[in-house]
Amino acid sequence: MSSNSKEAIILSDDWIRHALAEVDLSALAGKIYASSKTYGTDPSQWPSTIRNSMALCSDDYLMPALQVAYSLANQICKEEATGKSPPLSVDWVDNIVVYINNRVGCESMNMNDDGGRRDSLDSLAFLGSLGFDPSDAGGDNFADNLFESIIKDHDSTTLSEEERDEGIEGGCGDYIRAQFASSLFNTNDDNDGGLGRDAMQRIYSLGVVFYVLFSGGERPAAHFSTATEVVEQKLSGKSDTETEELSQELSEDLDPLSFDQAPIDLYGELSILDGIGDDEYVQDPLGDNNFDDAPQHPNPKKRHSSQQNRNISNNCSVPVESLREKGLPSTLCDLVSNMLDCTNATLSGEDSYQSMSDVRSDLQLMLDNPNTFLRDLDMTKLSTTGAQFIEKTMFGRNVELSTIKDAYRRSLSGECGLVTISGTSGTGKSLLANEFGKFVSAGGGIFLSGKFDQLQQGKPFSALASTFDQYCGILLHEDMASTKKEVAFQLRSILGKESYHLTKIIPNLATILGSELPALNNSEDCINAQKRVQYLLCQFVEVISSSSSAPITLFLDDLQWADAASIAAVNQLLFAAGPLSRRNFFFLGCARETDLQWPGVDILVAGGIEIKLDCMDEHMLNAMVSETLCLSPRLTRNLSNVIYHKTKGNPLFVSRLMCSLNKEGLLRPSLSRRRWEWDMKKIRSRRLPDDVAIFLTDSLGELPDNVQWALFILSCFGASSKSAFVESQGLDRSILENLEIAVAEGLVDKIDDQYRFAHDRIQEAAYNTIPAHRRSIIHFKYGLELSSLLIGDEDTSASVLFTAVNQLNLGGPPAVDDESHNFTAARLNLRAGKKAMEMSDYETAYSYFDSGISFLRKKHWQERYTLSVELFTLAAKCALTNGDHTSLKLLIAEVVVKAHFFEDKLDVLYFETCALTYSYRLAESIEKGLDILSKLGIEVQGTNVEVRVQETKDLLSTHTDDEILNSKQMIDPTMIIAMKFLGKLEAGMTQIMPKSVLYVTSKIIELSLTHGMSPVSPIGLAYYGSYLAKQGNINEGYHYVKLALSLLDKVGSRENAGEVILVCTQVKSYVELLQAALEYHREGYSAAMASGDSTQAVINMLALNASSFFAGANLQRIQEQCDNNIQMCEERKQLIFMVQAQQVQRTLSKLIGTGEEPKYSSEGRDILASNSSVLRSYHYQTAYVSFIFRSYDDTIENIEKYFAFQETTWGILLLAHAVHAFHTGLISFWVARKSKEQRWYQRGNQSKLALRKWAESSQWTFENKWYLLEAEESFCKNDVETAKTNYEKAITSAKHHKFVHEEALAHELSAYFYLELGKREQSAEHFMQAHEKYLEWGALGKCDSLLKFVEFMKKLWH
């Protein structure tokens, strides 16, 4: 025993007396109305029976007493397992010792009134029976010695100090435990360990002990031959005074409800129901008002299985009723009663215990969950409200919940935050997710939730948009004013005018941003509007997360009904690189297991953790039923087995079945027994379908017809609808009244004036109550009625529009009975499709246009020409955006053949050109574009580039910059579409026909200055400036790229901003500080993503990565950025750019020293083998790495292959041109010095002259490079002094201009120069400086290589 803990050890009788005496009755007086009203609020004035009953029922006594009871049962269970058991011939009550580990100080239990040691253990005979030698007792060690005697040879039942400290606090100590004396277990009985006579007798004997414990020390009368023995036992050894007091107490105990006292009302109003028989409470619907085993006594002790058992007068019935009269909980009285049912080693009641372990388990339940398994049920509430079964409770999902919590915590550290929950319908997926939501909210996180709906799939972004809109609605509350202001400020700063697109899907956001929000041109040609919204949503999540300083968790339910746009947006939130940080976002989704094969869900599942929920097994189901009915699992096991075999453990099926059984009276609360009871025979014989859906459908069939019809109407509009909307249909004014009946039945929830089905299976069951052909007609009818509410185009609610059109489409063309309705349905689908395009949901928009086409009649091209052109053209645009080239091809063919005018075909022909460009069929795209332009009278090709350049210069010279920026907008539709074709030609020709780019550029400028500016106009100026810069006129080119950037904000659209910023930034890098200029690519990425142009977004990020490398940024950071770029390319299927990024990744890996080789896919290997641009990049990267690591043969092999591709370079100026020229120049001088071949010297000199020219425009960026090439050239010429001077200039310039990597390279090449001269000290100094700078750059691999070379040279020198 620990020296710093105290053990109070006393006999059980003494503990009971003192524990009851220490209960603070004054604290209970105000809580028990009946007693305080009758006897006053001073407990000292109460009769002893009242005080005794009050103390017995208080938690201060009851919970410690339960702990004592559990300890005794646990000891017997463990002893039985070893073959030992206490003798049945001994009175167990007198062989129990209670000890308490207390910190508060309950020494009074071991003290006399005068402060000395209590002498309640002074009987030597009794101490000897405990196995304790009285001669060992001495002084303060008395209790400790007794303690050691009690626990001797029982280490298995001895708790550690930590366990004792964690015990129940109550009564008079912090931890209470009891044990039988060890001497009781010294002899082995014939322990049968099962249902034999001795086992049952032990349960009975322990039941006697429990009776004494919970009655406050009374011995049950049946435990003695007569009541006289009780008195004699009590009075034995007492003084006269004690005898008189005890006699009075016993008389009160034996007659607890004496005639001269008022009745004790411990149950409050419930007591008036005690005399009501169960058959007076529930009428059996089958005509049998009496259960086969229903008790007839108003306060029965147990149920009997037969008439014979009902007639048996059990010898424990009277004392257990005495416990009930004291107000003890019914479950505790039943426990004692069921133990005493084992009298005479027979099972006299069907609830009787069959093993000691069952007793222990029941006690443990009462201790762990007293509100469920100990407290009496509120029978008054149950009798009025009926059963409320478990549909909102989570059972047996703690492991899964922990898995989600762990994934969430990892996501806060940067890991992928994605969990999907799958399972059959009714397994509790949504309940598990919402339980996790409580955890997130409690931790300060933001938990957003939404639900997809099978009948509302036509609404753009469906659950995703409504979820964010609800959050914005919360921000509009007054107490969220500061957060709202911060969100508005950040969104305006980050997104600018692009935030307009978010307001189309998040209406409340428009209120947050305010009236100053500018509108954008709805006719702009967004390359991929869905990717634009995905990016904007990423920015929105980042803003609300940073504004609230909390991580965002998004939960979307029923993913099997999710629209593709929402799934794509979630993927973007999870995987997109760039501004969004994953640690701010966690996604949790639920989907039915059978529907997880849907492609959109597969994308999500591939990136995170999938949790599969199965139905409950028999054990878990019994635990659920047990807790639901507040009964021990042993009592509910038979019922649970029947329910399991009928439901296969499906939680939804179980809950609905139990509600049904309760409704039918087969499962009901018993007022007399204060617990649930059931008719097992009838439940077992009831036939049920195997599927929960069929069961629900059958159950709905039992409802009144009006209620069924109301549920069907509600189901037609999805999982939920506002009451005002349902009532507005005017179909049946009593619909709301009938829905209220459904609410009372638990089929529908009403939350904030909104009706929502309690489960989607219930919605499906209600929907299926009407045959499919009738449903179609009803849907179409509802759609027409709703469409009558659509007046005007501007003020119409988008929600009503989508709902009306969805109803029409659910009906479909077969439901049309009037030809005019075909036109109405097609026109409304066109309108809904346009609205969906405004919301950037092109998948949904396409479905509307496709449905509209299906409503058109056979001669629609003649009868409804304009409507037909619009539907087919916009459907083609959506198909292009969605990447559905098969549908696009069919739609284009239809328009080309059926359209009456060439102008009506231009849009679909443009879409065809775009599709060819996106498929990298650039030659075909260029040919198609030139052909269309020719038919429009616009000729692009020319014979003399110089003449065209001069013509463009002359044209531009007639306009000032201000005149260009303030030019009129282009309004001619033909010219607008022609400009779009020219823009596509510009991008394609730059890659494969660089010499022809200028012709397209000049034509764009010409048409812009003649017909007005369009969104394509900035592209013309950007490419023109870049062309001039590449030809050597950098300053003039720089002027025009700045003009192009200024024009972006003047043309009313930034749809081409990503491309314009990319081209312009490359030119800026030749004039402005490189370290500052490269940051423009971040702006280009954001602009491209905001317009949905993922290709230009990828190129901008690759350019940023390359520019950061050229600027000497830390290699580890560049590598992280490169990894993100590769992931971004892979996610967007940009395979060519991904392969190029992997080449850069290989270079970084070599420099850093990890040596990892890129893992190319099969498609990547094909690109690497066939694409000339990729091959050129590959050979440059390989030659550069070989040069840095001084591998001469590999360097010369790859640089030769690089020069072979030089003629295919792009027609615009890129920063890569200067960097390549610098590195190829250094390589050329190195090879020239070794090979003495003149051609290498000439190549090096060409690079040097180019760097000298560029150094004139940007001394900061190019001066050090030019000096280093001058030094290497002088080294080739053996001009030692000039070489020395230029090496020092190169080092100084690189250091001054913050190019640490080129400072390192200049030191290294200087070291080789001095090494060649034989000047070891200077060489060693430069090697050391090179090593230091390479280390600063992060090139650890290069540092190791350099050290090895220096070590090798030292050995040679010595």
TrEMBL record:
Keyword annotations of the record: Membrane, Transmembrane, Transmembrane helix
Region (Disordered): 233-253, 278-314
PANTHER family: HYBRID SIGNAL TRANSDUCTION HISTIDINE KINASE G
SUPFAM superfamilies: P-loop containing nucleoside triphosphate hydrolases (SSF52540), TPR-like (SSF48452)
Source organism per UniProt: Skeletonema marinoi
Domain Orc1-like AAA ATPase: 395-574
Regions that span the bilayer: 1210-1232
Full protein name: AAA ATPase
Matching InterPro entries: AAA_16, Hybrid_Histidine_Kinase, P-loop_NTPase, TPR-like_helical_dom_sf
Biased composition (Acidic residues): 242-253
Pfam families: AAA_16
